[in-house]
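so i finally got all the pieces together for this one. its two components total, 299 residues if u count the protein bits. some of the lines might not be protein, just check the labels. i wanna see the whole assembly predicted at once instead of chain by chain like last time, that was a mess tbh
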Amino acid sequence: MHIPDGYLVLRICIIFYILSGIFILIAIRKIRLHEESIPLYISMVAIIFAAQMLDWPIPGGTTAHFTGGALAGIILGSWGGTLVMTIVLAIQAIIFGDGGVLTLGANIWNMGVIAPFTGYTLYTLFRRYGYTASIAGAFIGGWLSSIIASLFAGLQLGLSTIFLYPITVTIPVMILYHLGFGFDRWCGLWRSCSLHA
Amino acid sequence: MMLSRTIVWGLTLSLVLIVFFTPLSMWILSKVEYREGLEVVADKLNLTNLELYRAPLHDYLIPGVENEYLATIIAGVIGVAIAVAVTTLILKLIAVKGGGRR
Protein backbone atom coordinates (compact mmCIF):
# COMPACT_ATOMS: atom_id res chain seq x y z
CA MET A 1 0.00 0.00 0.00
CA HIS A 2 3.03 2.23 -0.31
CA ILE A 3 1.91 5.06 -2.54
CA PRO A 4 4.65 6.13 -4.96
CA ASP A 5 5.54 9.67 -5.94
CA GLY A 6 3.35 11.11 -8.65
CA TYR A 7 0.14 9.48 -7.46
CA LEU A 8 -0.73 12.26 -5.03
CA VAL A 9 -0.83 15.97 -5.69
CA LEU A 10 1.52 18.15 -3.70
CA ARG A 11 -1.25 19.68 -1.64
CA ILE A 12 -2.32 16.28 -0.34
CA CYS A 13 1.29 15.30 0.32
CA ILE A 14 1.82 18.41 2.41
CA ILE A 15 -1.38 18.00 4.38
CA PHE A 16 -0.53 14.46 5.35
CA TYR A 17 3.08 15.30 6.10
CA ILE A 18 1.75 17.86 8.57
CA LEU A 19 -0.75 15.44 10.08
CA SER A 20 1.77 12.66 10.39
CA GLY A 21 4.40 15.04 11.69
CA ILE A 22 2.10 16.13 14.48
CA PHE A 23 1.41 12.57 15.51
CA ILE A 24 5.08 11.63 15.37
CA LEU A 25 6.00 14.53 17.62
CA ILE A 26 3.27 13.59 20.06
CA ALA A 27 4.39 9.97 19.94
CA ILE A 28 7.93 10.93 20.87
CA ARG A 29 6.62 12.85 23.85
CA LYS A 30 4.09 10.29 24.96
CA ILE A 31 6.11 7.12 24.67
CA ARG A 32 6.73 5.51 27.99
CA LEU A 33 10.12 3.90 27.91
CA HIS A 34 10.60 1.30 30.55
CA GLU A 35 13.87 -0.59 30.70
CA GLU A 36 12.02 -3.70 29.54
CA SER A 37 10.27 -2.14 26.60
CA ILE A 38 13.33 -1.06 24.64
CA PRO A 39 14.20 -4.60 23.50
CA LEU A 40 10.58 -4.99 22.44
CA TYR A 41 10.80 -1.93 20.20
CA ILE A 42 13.98 -3.22 18.60
CA SER A 43 12.50 -6.65 18.17
CA MET A 44 9.32 -5.29 16.64
CA VAL A 45 11.04 -2.97 14.18
CA ALA A 46 13.10 -5.89 12.89
CA ILE A 47 10.11 -8.21 12.58
CA ILE A 48 7.88 -5.64 10.93
CA PHE A 49 10.52 -4.61 8.42
CA ALA A 50 11.14 -8.23 7.52
CA ALA A 51 7.45 -9.12 7.40
CA GLN A 52 6.80 -6.24 5.02
CA MET A 53 9.06 -7.84 2.46
CA LEU A 54 6.63 -10.67 1.93
CA ASP A 55 4.13 -10.45 -0.84
CA TRP A 56 1.56 -13.14 -1.54
CA PRO A 57 -0.81 -13.63 -4.43
CA ILE A 58 -4.45 -13.60 -3.45
CA PRO A 59 -7.58 -14.63 -5.31
CA GLY A 60 -8.56 -11.86 -7.63
CA GLY A 61 -5.19 -11.57 -9.29
CA THR A 62 -3.62 -9.07 -6.92
CA THR A 63 -1.20 -9.40 -4.03
CA ALA A 64 -1.37 -8.97 -0.30
CA HIS A 65 1.36 -7.86 1.98
CA PHE A 66 1.65 -7.55 5.69
CA THR A 67 2.15 -4.02 6.88
CA GLY A 68 2.37 -4.65 10.61
CA GLY A 69 0.69 -1.43 11.66
CA ALA A 70 -1.93 -3.06 13.80
CA LEU A 71 0.62 -5.45 15.27
CA ALA A 72 2.86 -2.55 16.19
CA GLY A 73 -0.05 -0.76 17.82
CA ILE A 74 -1.12 -3.78 19.81
CA ILE A 75 2.32 -4.73 21.08
CA LEU A 76 3.74 -1.25 21.61
CA GLY A 77 0.64 0.89 22.04
CA SER A 78 -0.55 3.49 19.56
CA TRP A 79 2.35 5.90 20.01
CA GLY A 80 5.01 3.23 20.05
CA GLY A 81 3.42 1.76 16.97
CA THR A 82 3.54 5.10 15.19
CA LEU A 83 7.21 5.54 16.01
CA VAL A 84 8.23 2.10 14.82
CA MET A 85 6.14 2.23 11.65
CA THR A 86 7.52 5.67 10.82
CA ILE A 87 11.06 4.34 11.05
CA VAL A 88 10.24 1.34 8.87
CA LEU A 89 8.38 3.37 6.26
CA ALA A 90 11.03 6.08 6.12
CA ILE A 91 13.79 3.53 5.56
CA GLN A 92 11.72 1.80 2.91
CA ALA A 93 11.15 5.04 1.02
CA ILE A 94 14.60 6.56 1.37
CA ILE A 95 16.83 3.51 1.05
CA PHE A 96 14.73 1.19 -1.08
CA GLY A 97 12.38 3.44 -2.99
CA ASP A 98 9.41 1.57 -1.60
CA GLY A 99 6.82 4.33 -1.53
CA GLY A 100 7.58 7.87 -2.58
CA VAL A 101 9.41 10.54 -0.62
CA LEU A 102 6.78 13.19 -1.21
CA THR A 103 4.07 10.67 -0.39
CA LEU A 104 5.87 9.43 2.72
CA GLY A 105 3.72 11.61 4.96
CA ALA A 106 0.58 10.07 3.54
CA ASN A 107 1.98 6.55 3.78
CA ILE A 108 3.00 7.14 7.38
CA TRP A 109 -0.50 8.40 8.10
CA ASN A 110 -2.14 5.33 6.61
CA MET A 111 0.16 2.63 7.89
CA GLY A 112 1.85 4.37 10.81
CA VAL A 113 -0.92 6.34 12.47
CA ILE A 114 -4.27 4.94 11.40
CA ALA A 115 -3.27 1.28 11.45
CA PRO A 116 -1.62 1.22 14.90
CA PHE A 117 -4.37 3.32 16.43
CA THR A 118 -7.11 1.16 14.99
CA GLY A 119 -5.39 -2.06 15.97
CA TYR A 120 -4.67 -0.85 19.47
CA THR A 121 -8.17 0.52 20.00
CA LEU A 122 -9.96 -2.65 18.88
CA TYR A 123 -7.61 -4.86 20.81
CA THR A 124 -8.00 -2.84 23.99
CA LEU A 125 -11.76 -2.77 23.52
CA PHE A 126 -11.98 -6.54 23.36
CA ARG A 127 -9.33 -7.28 25.90
CA ARG A 128 -11.47 -6.38 28.86
CA TYR A 129 -13.69 -9.33 28.04
CA GLY A 130 -11.01 -11.90 28.55
CA TYR A 131 -8.17 -13.70 26.83
CA THR A 132 -10.13 -15.24 23.95
CA ALA A 133 -11.80 -11.93 23.34
CA SER A 134 -8.42 -10.23 23.22
CA ILE A 135 -7.28 -12.61 20.48
CA ALA A 136 -10.45 -11.87 18.54
CA GLY A 137 -9.78 -8.19 19.14
CA ALA A 138 -6.31 -8.52 17.68
CA PHE A 139 -7.65 -10.22 14.56
CA ILE A 140 -10.49 -7.76 14.12
CA GLY A 141 -8.18 -4.86 14.86
CA GLY A 142 -5.75 -6.07 12.25
CA TRP A 143 -8.43 -6.53 9.65
CA LEU A 144 -10.19 -3.27 10.37
CA SER A 145 -6.97 -1.27 10.46
CA SER A 146 -6.25 -2.48 6.96
CA ILE A 147 -9.68 -1.37 5.79
CA ILE A 148 -9.49 2.06 7.34
CA ALA A 149 -5.93 2.58 6.12
CA SER A 150 -7.14 1.75 2.62
CA LEU A 151 -9.97 4.19 3.09
CA PHE A 152 -7.47 6.94 3.72
CA ALA A 153 -5.30 5.84 0.83
CA GLY A 154 -8.38 5.93 -1.36
CA LEU A 155 -9.20 9.35 0.00
CA GLN A 156 -5.72 10.63 -0.76
CA LEU A 157 -5.77 9.21 -4.26
CA GLY A 158 -9.30 10.42 -4.82
CA LEU A 159 -8.63 13.93 -3.64
CA SER A 160 -5.59 13.99 -5.89
CA THR A 161 -7.59 13.08 -8.94
CA ILE A 162 -10.67 14.95 -7.87
CA PHE A 163 -11.16 16.62 -11.19
CA LEU A 164 -10.82 13.37 -13.03
CA TYR A 165 -12.63 10.78 -10.95
CA PRO A 166 -14.97 11.01 -8.03
CA ILE A 167 -14.03 9.63 -4.64
CA THR A 168 -16.92 7.26 -5.11
CA VAL A 169 -14.66 5.47 -7.58
CA THR A 170 -11.34 5.58 -5.77
CA ILE A 171 -12.31 4.62 -2.25
CA PRO A 172 -14.28 1.50 -3.18
CA VAL A 173 -11.43 0.42 -5.40
CA MET A 174 -8.94 0.68 -2.56
CA ILE A 175 -11.19 -0.86 0.05
CA LEU A 176 -12.33 -3.76 -2.07
CA TYR A 177 -8.90 -5.12 -2.53
CA HIS A 178 -8.16 -4.84 1.16
CA LEU A 179 -11.40 -6.37 2.34
CA GLY A 180 -10.31 -9.75 1.16
CA PHE A 181 -7.15 -10.20 3.07
CA GLY A 182 -6.43 -7.90 6.01
CA PHE A 183 -3.24 -9.78 6.58
CA ASP A 184 -2.73 -7.91 9.77
CA ARG A 185 -5.17 -10.32 11.27
CA TRP A 186 -2.20 -12.62 11.57
CA CYS A 187 -0.91 -10.30 14.22
CA GLY A 188 -3.39 -12.09 16.42
CA LEU A 189 -1.33 -15.25 16.06
CA TRP A 190 1.79 -13.45 17.15
CA ARG A 191 -0.01 -12.04 20.14
CA SER A 192 -0.94 -15.48 21.36
CA CYS A 193 2.57 -16.71 20.68
CA SER A 194 4.12 -13.87 22.59
CA LEU A 195 1.95 -14.65 25.57
CA HIS A 196 3.45 -18.09 25.80
CA ALA A 197 7.03 -17.12 24.98
CA MET B 1 20.06 -5.21 26.94
CA MET B 2 21.92 -6.05 23.76
CA LEU B 3 21.44 -9.77 23.95
CA SER B 4 18.05 -9.76 25.62
CA ARG B 5 15.93 -12.76 24.79
CA THR B 6 13.31 -10.57 23.14
CA ILE B 7 15.84 -9.10 20.77
CA VAL B 8 17.29 -12.49 19.93
CA TRP B 9 13.85 -13.86 19.16
CA GLY B 10 12.92 -10.81 17.13
CA LEU B 11 16.09 -10.82 15.06
CA THR B 12 15.87 -14.57 14.52
CA LEU B 13 12.28 -14.33 13.36
CA SER B 14 13.08 -11.43 11.07
CA LEU B 15 15.99 -13.38 9.63
CA VAL B 16 13.80 -16.39 8.97
CA LEU B 17 11.25 -14.15 7.29
CA ILE B 18 13.91 -12.59 5.08
CA VAL B 19 16.01 -15.59 4.23
CA PHE B 20 13.27 -18.15 3.80
CA PHE B 21 9.80 -16.72 3.51
CA THR B 22 10.56 -13.70 1.36
CA PRO B 23 12.28 -15.68 -1.41
CA LEU B 24 9.49 -18.22 -1.14
CA SER B 25 6.87 -15.57 -1.68
CA MET B 26 8.89 -14.17 -4.57
CA TRP B 27 9.07 -17.60 -6.14
CA ILE B 28 5.34 -18.16 -5.73
CA LEU B 29 4.63 -14.81 -7.31
CA SER B 30 6.87 -15.66 -10.23
CA LYS B 31 4.62 -18.60 -10.97
CA VAL B 32 1.36 -16.72 -11.12
CA GLU B 33 -0.17 -13.91 -13.08
CA TYR B 34 -0.75 -11.01 -10.78
CA ARG B 35 -0.92 -7.28 -10.52
CA GLU B 36 -0.22 -5.19 -7.47
CA GLY B 37 -3.41 -3.80 -6.01
CA LEU B 38 -2.10 -0.29 -6.26
CA GLU B 39 -1.25 -0.91 -9.92
CA VAL B 40 -4.86 -1.73 -10.62
CA VAL B 41 -5.96 1.45 -8.91
CA ALA B 42 -3.34 3.49 -10.74
CA ASP B 43 -4.63 2.09 -14.00
CA LYS B 44 -8.20 3.00 -13.27
CA LEU B 45 -7.21 6.49 -12.22
CA ASN B 46 -4.58 7.01 -14.87
CA LEU B 47 -1.85 7.69 -12.35
CA THR B 48 1.78 7.84 -13.32
CA ASN B 49 4.85 7.30 -11.26
CA LEU B 50 7.12 10.29 -10.82
CA GLU B 51 10.81 9.45 -10.65
CA LEU B 52 11.63 12.23 -8.24
CA TYR B 53 14.19 10.47 -6.15
CA ARG B 54 16.42 7.54 -6.93
CA ALA B 55 16.85 5.37 -3.86
CA PRO B 56 20.30 3.77 -3.44
CA LEU B 57 18.92 0.24 -3.22
CA HIS B 58 15.88 0.84 -5.35
CA ASP B 59 13.36 -2.00 -5.37
CA TYR B 60 15.44 -3.99 -2.91
CA LEU B 61 18.06 -4.70 -5.57
CA ILE B 62 21.76 -4.58 -4.91
CA PRO B 63 23.97 -3.22 -7.68
CA GLY B 64 26.31 -5.97 -8.71
CA VAL B 65 24.16 -8.79 -7.39
CA GLU B 66 22.60 -10.54 -10.36
CA ASN B 67 20.40 -12.99 -8.53
CA GLU B 68 17.15 -11.28 -7.56
CA TYR B 69 16.54 -13.59 -4.62
CA LEU B 70 19.98 -13.06 -3.16
CA ALA B 71 19.75 -9.32 -3.69
CA THR B 72 16.42 -9.17 -1.87
CA ILE B 73 17.80 -11.16 1.04
CA ILE B 74 20.82 -8.89 1.34
CA ALA B 75 18.59 -5.84 1.03
CA GLY B 76 16.34 -7.21 3.76
CA VAL B 77 19.24 -7.77 6.11
CA ILE B 78 20.57 -4.28 5.41
CA GLY B 79 17.12 -2.85 6.02
CA VAL B 80 16.70 -4.61 9.33
CA ALA B 81 20.17 -3.53 10.40
CA ILE B 82 19.43 0.11 9.60
CA ALA B 83 16.03 -0.10 11.26
CA VAL B 84 17.50 -1.54 14.44
CA ALA B 85 20.27 1.06 14.48
CA VAL B 86 17.91 3.97 13.92
CA THR B 87 15.44 2.70 16.50
CA THR B 88 18.15 2.22 19.10
CA LEU B 89 19.45 5.70 18.44
CA ILE B 90 16.04 7.34 18.64
CA LEU B 91 15.06 5.47 21.79
CA LYS B 92 18.34 6.46 23.41
CA LEU B 93 17.68 10.09 22.49
CA ILE B 94 14.18 9.92 23.91
CA ALA B 95 15.47 8.30 27.08
CA VAL B 96 18.22 10.87 27.48
CA LYS B 97 15.71 13.67 27.13
CA GLY B 98 13.96 12.07 30.07
CA GLY B 99 11.04 11.01 27.90
CA GLY B 100 8.73 9.41 30.42
CA ARG B 101 11.28 7.11 32.02
CA ARG B 102 9.55 5.36 34.85
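Residues 180-197 of chain A have pLDDT under 50 and may be disordered.
Strands of chain A lie at 56-58, 62-64.
anyway lmk what u think
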